[in-house]
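Kindly review this record before class:
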Amino acid sequence: MRSYIIVAMREFPIDSVRAAFPALKGDFIFFDNAAGAQAPESVLNAVADHLLHRNVQRGGRYRQSQEVDEAISQARDSVALLVNARHPDEVSFGMNSTSFLRFVSIAIGELLGHRTGNGRQSNDHRSDDRQSNDRSEIVVTDLDHEANISVWLALERAGAKVVWWRFRDDGRLHPEDLDQLLSPRTRIVACTLASNAIGSIVDVAEVSRRAHAAGAEVFVDAVHYGAHGPIDVQAFDCDYLVCSGYKIFSPHMGFFWGRREILNALPTFREDFVPDTTPSKMEVGTFVYENVAGMDAAVRYLENLGRGVDPGVSSRRAALVASMEAIREYEAQLSRAMLDVLDRANATVYGITSRDQIGYRTPTLCFNLPGVLSAKVAEGLAEKNIGVRDGHMYCPRLMTRLGLPIESGAVRASLVHYNTMEEIRRFGSALAEIAG
């Protein structure tokens, strides 16, 4: 579980990090980063440069159009390095993560509807019965964002049976609990890499080991985790992974990774002239090219951060890993400080609160103050120039498990690596006033 272990590293360069983000020059505190993070100046410049110099359609014979093709290719290479894909063609770009989730679920629903077998046997760790017509069960969790639940529930109309994997009272999904859920009928396990509500991290490598032993596939929602630690699809050994660029310092866009042999066998909608191979078959219509250019710049920002914290790195991938490991270590400090502040406010914090379990969470904390509605807390903090979020966080099933009304839910403060201890101090002072 190397991705989840907090390792001591050199001092985090918070001043130079913050200097890279123009939005941080004001007095506002961004503690709603799980809804979308700010972009560094290099990303803003990349978007503007694309719009100014090559705001045209790809596939043409003139220079500007060819530059769009090259920009997309470069971005695909960068994202492939970010997730440690085996090949850049395993990476697809689109509008958002939810659309990719639905795209894949529709394809799997078609397989279920026809009951013709999935024809995707190609990896030696998969069992032959993976192609069985009886694989109609889909495992989903109550820790996930609703997007990674509802798209699978929709397949019940095609004959799927949804099996629920419940998180425990400690706010974590334990892979060993899958042993009672997996069977020769399981087609796919859909789970998050980290909860966008309470921050709990899931050991997806262990999920994959157990699911594959049962002949099933694994679909990972990495949207929330993407800003907080290294992604390694080879180490995770999952089959699909989806992420949102705008959660990891790019403009609004989504990207998707899948095993090339699996994606090439999926039945998908495509226009007749589009190759029936990835990435083309997964990229429906025209996506926002300038935002993909921004995603490329966001990866390069993280890469440069990694070279700063570890000048000895020998490759782009190594620099990205160094960056994300440094972010994990720094954010662990932020998580501890936030837990201390919330303790002093007598807040109820949902999920992992033990300091020795910090490595199993991101600095995303859902909480409530005694006797104060979550909306009032968020409004009070907004008056102090601090942005948080209140409500169900698109996780109504999780809120129900926590015993919270879906309408009010909780307050969520979600931090990333450009946040500071001083911002946490200001947050604590504001919270103390609101709590009375």
User: Anything to note?
Assistant: The first strand starts at residue 29 and ends at 30. The longest helix spans residues 316-344. The mean pLDDT is 93.
